[in-house]
Amino acid sequence: MNQKSKKPFLIYLSLVLILSAIFFLFRIDLFPGEITTKDKIYTCDISLSYFINMGGSKQDFANIESFRLLPKGYALALIMILGLPALVAYRVHLNAKKKREILRK
After folding, report:
1. Cβ-count burial of 19 within 10 angstroms (0-12 exposed, 13-18 middle, 19+ buried)?
2. Parent domain of 80
3. φ and ψ at residue 91, rounded to 5 degrees
């Protein structure tokens, strides 16, 4: 990779890691999903941190058997974690390309 193409890729990679850390380490109930208990299935917004047991205490999860994202939740997670960094990296790429064209003239 040459130096010009490294910058957008590094921005993309760092933003993916930062957003993944935010969504998996902090309790942000944003993604549509289902919580299955012994009695019922609840449809609500859940956090990705639930999947790595960081979303609450053991008492919060006493009756809960499983968590599951709905298709809308998977789509939103992909858009937030992979799509937004891709747009930012693409914007950086276009700005760098524009500056190179201005310098050539």
Report:
1. middle
2. 3-104
3. -65, -40
Tally of domains within the chain: 1
What is the per-residue pLDDT across 63-96, written as a single tens digit (0 to 9) for each? 888 889 999 999 999 999 999 999 999 999 999 8
CA distance 86 to 80: 10
C-beta neighbour count of 47 within 10 angstroms: 20
In this predicted structure, what is the pLDDT of residue 4? 60
DSSP 8-state class, residue 59: T
**In contact, 31 and 76? CB cutoff 8 Å:** yes
Alpha carbon 15 to chain centroid distance?
9
CB 35 within 8 A of CB 64: yes
- Residues 81, 69: Cα–Cα separation, whole Å: 15
